[in-house]
Amino acid sequence: MTKTSMLEGKSIVVTGAGGGIGRAIALAAAAEGASVVVNDIGAALDGSGENAGPAHQVVAEILDAGGEAVADTSSVSDPAGAEAMIAIALDSFGHIDGVVNNAGVLRDGFFHKMSTDQLDQVLKVHLYGSFNVSRAAAPHFKDQGSGAFVHMTSTSGLIGNLAQANYSAAKMGIVGLSKSIALDLQRFDVRSNCIAPFAWSRMISSIKADTDDQKARVAKLQQMTPDKVATMVAYLLSDAARDVNGQIFCVRNNEILLFSQPRPVRSVHRGEGWTVASIAEHAIPALRSAFYPLDVSAEVFSWDPV
């Protein structure tokens, strides 16, 4: 494995690293010189079952290429599991320098048909999982005065998609979590950023492809390989990104995009205050031109990936 200096000597935990984007991130981090804890519980896409094989397979790939890696099969949804994977990094490599919160599951369904179990499972893995692993690493980052978090969000949350209320809510929650981590830990030189990835992986292989338009979209997604996302993650983990904090990026094939963050876009004021009637007659008509349409991600990203 050819190592460069970008992550040389760093110890990185990557969750959900047994396949897809997570695997690509683990391989990219190792190729840049990092020692990697490859975490994957080996569950099915809906979160069911466990299989230790995927994590160990990725570790074998890294070791065969001359890198350093160990496997972990803890669940990110369990705080004790999160503590365990950080402990493995400390025991194996002596320190922890970066966390990539990538683990996820899907339980898609229209909101009016969604069960509390479908909501709970997705939140537990994506949002609680990101909190658990980040919280386990935070004291070590604080004490050493350095560290980097990279969290996976999604345009399903940032923009919207059909039949993914649980996933969208979790992914927007991660954006808020990341920003809070960035604010709370910036004085300790700890960074936290998000990436909304476009890449063909198991997580998006369940996208519906019944119509010609849907099939065309899936064909475009299949062109976008996880390694493009992994390169950006490796950069954000490196010291070269020491002044990049609290941001939301999107990686779409060879494009790197910076997402806006909610800020006021227009206001109306009435000295005597508002009544229900005056809001209807004046406030909303004045604000309406700045309303956002009910877009889905594919409508906003309407150009072909390059």
UniProtKB/TrEMBL annotation:
Q: Which domain of life is it from?
A: Bacteria
Q: Any idea which UniProt keywords this protein has?
A: Plasmid
Pfam families noted in UniProt: adh_short_C2
Q: Where is the Ketoreductase domain?
A: 10-203
- The UniProt entry's coiled-coil ranges are none
Which SMART domains does the entry mention? PKS_KR (SM00822)
UniProt protein name: 3-oxoacyl-ACP reductase
